[in-house]
Amino acid sequence: MTLEPIARFHAPFGENFGIPRQSGLVESLRGEIRFEPRYRQSEAFRGLEGFDYIWILWGFDRNRRESGSWHATVRPPRLGGNRSEGVFATRSPYRPNPIGLSSVRLERIDPDSCTLYVRGADLADGTPIYDIKPYLAYTDAHPDAAGGWTDSCAWSELQVVFPEEVRRLLPEEDAATLQRILAQDPRPHYQNDPDKVYGMSFAGYEIKFRVDTPTLTVISAEK
Amino acid sequence: MTLEPIARFHAPFGENFGIPRQSGLVESLRGEIRFEPRYRQSEAFRGLEGFDYIWILWGFDRNRRESGSWHATVRPPRLGGNRSEGVFATRSPYRPNPIGLSSVRLERIDPDSCTLYVRGADLADGTPIYDIKPYLAYTDAHPDAAGGWTDSCAWSELQVVFPEEVRRLLPEEDAATLQRILAQDPRPHYQNDPDKVYGMSFAGYEIKFRVDTPTLTVISAEK
Predict the structure, then answer these.
(1) Residue A50 three-state SS
(2) Residues in chain A within 8 Å Cβ distance of B99
(3) What is the pLDDT of residues B91-102, one digit of tens each?
(4) Claim to verify: residue A50 and residue A123 sit in the same structural domain
(5) Are residues A54 and A111 in the same domain?
(6) To the nearest whole angstrom, how far is the Cα of B101 from the nearest Cα of chain A?
């Protein structure tokens, strides 16, 4: 089966750095779904405005291995890279068919441009999107479902020190969202160098920070 | 993006007739996911046994329109075919990229054949499967999410008359599952002819029934 992108995702990140590891982890994070010209028909979205959440089926286009190669096991970042699980027991991007699945909150639809405004996504800027579906709680929601190995290893969040003189440079909503992103530990896996200065672009700002686990300290924010 | 099937679904139906309209509607319905030879590696499923539910990403291969064609609106069977909604506001198979998404209960994994035994699927026999992912309640479950137009039109189930002399021909579990399938109204949309005898193959039996709405009467079951 051949899939053609129907839309692209637009995220407030300059690169992959900082993207939440799953949808919903940073609920306030804004994003936009912009459709390809041939799908910009407002009738195609009729009725969608009544749904709180939508599914996005998207392509892991930045994480693709050589075509056709796959590995039976992966080392989830959540397990600190020390343990491996079967690829089908994880949401890893390194899978036989690199399709991502994310539920996001639908905030608003612009009927003229057919842009969907969403919150809580875990997609990089420019990600190709292959399908949008309404979220149906009666068939999609299993709140008490056992989550296997993920149930016994909660994320440990970082404590974020965000000095007031840096924080006030950003609009309040962006500052609050940034704090949630930083608490999720955006460092590449398994790094721990308290002297290293990390840079991350977010919402038009270049953010610099250091991490001395479990504390992350924001150093600067520049336009 | 080109997708290759990693597995096929095996359902107890002889053809499309009787397949539930969404996953979970017939919770007891059994099915099997049988992997292609190159994916039959037990390590690829390590850790999956701890999850109650899995996602299946699959192909609407029996409902495909001519390649490249799409319609902005569809008439959901749930609305009786009288009203149309935007294709992206429905789970219709007739969509730009014909990928289906279903959460099913994972009952058991056979480690030798790497077969997954599931319940509650809405897939036809032979359906190609492109990905299997673990269901993660913390990111996938939104039990209170508003469901737009679907919230105001509950399925009206049929009342099933299943005479004891026919029912006892089937194993009890199959009979109970069949009753749930028939209650969902497996007729092609918008048909209502009380004299018509419908046939459906299920679990090795050829089932015959009539429908005089809101009552469905099972006539016979033959091996």
Answers:
(1) helix
(2) 1, 3, 57, 99, 130-131
(3) 999 999 999 999
(4) yes
(5) yes
(6) 9
CA dist B97 and B177 (Å) reads 32
Domain count, chain B: 2
Give residue-wise pLDDT tens across range B8-66: 999 998 777 889 989 999 999 999 999 999 999 999 999 999 999 999 999 987 655 55
Whether pTM exceeds 0.90: yes
ipTM of the complex: 0.93
* 3-state secondary structure labels for all residues of chain B: CECCCCEEEECCECCCCCCCCCCCCCCCCEEEEEECHHHCCHHHHCCHHHECEEEEEEECCCCCCCCCCCCCEECCHHHCCCCCEEHHHCCCCCCCCCEEEEEEEEEEEECCCCEEEEECCCCCCCCEEEEEEECCHHHHCCCCCCEHHHHHCCCCCCEEECCHHHHCCCCHHHHHHHHHHHHCCCCCCCCCCCCCCEEEEECCEEEEEEEECCEEEEEEEEC
- Which residues in chain B are contacts of A141 at CB distance < 8 A? 140-143, 145
Query: pLDDT digit string (tens) for A137-192?
Result: 999 999 999 999 998 877 789 999 999 999 999 999 999 999 999 999 988 766 78
Q: Do A47 and B89 touch (CB under 8 A)?
A: yes
Domain stops at, among A85, A110, A140? A140
Provide CB contacts within 8 A for B191, sequence distance 6+.
Answer: none
Nearest to B58 by CA among B120, B135, B127: B127
Per the structure, the complete domain to which residue A54 belongs is given by: 7-63+98-140
Q: What CATH number does residue A217 fall under?
A: 3.30.2310.20
User: Does the CB of A162 have a partner CB in chain B at under 8 Å?
Assistant: no
Tell me the chain B residues in contact with residue A87 when contact means C-beta distances shorter than 8 Å: 44
Burial of A69 (0-12, 13-18, 19+ CB in 10 A): exposed
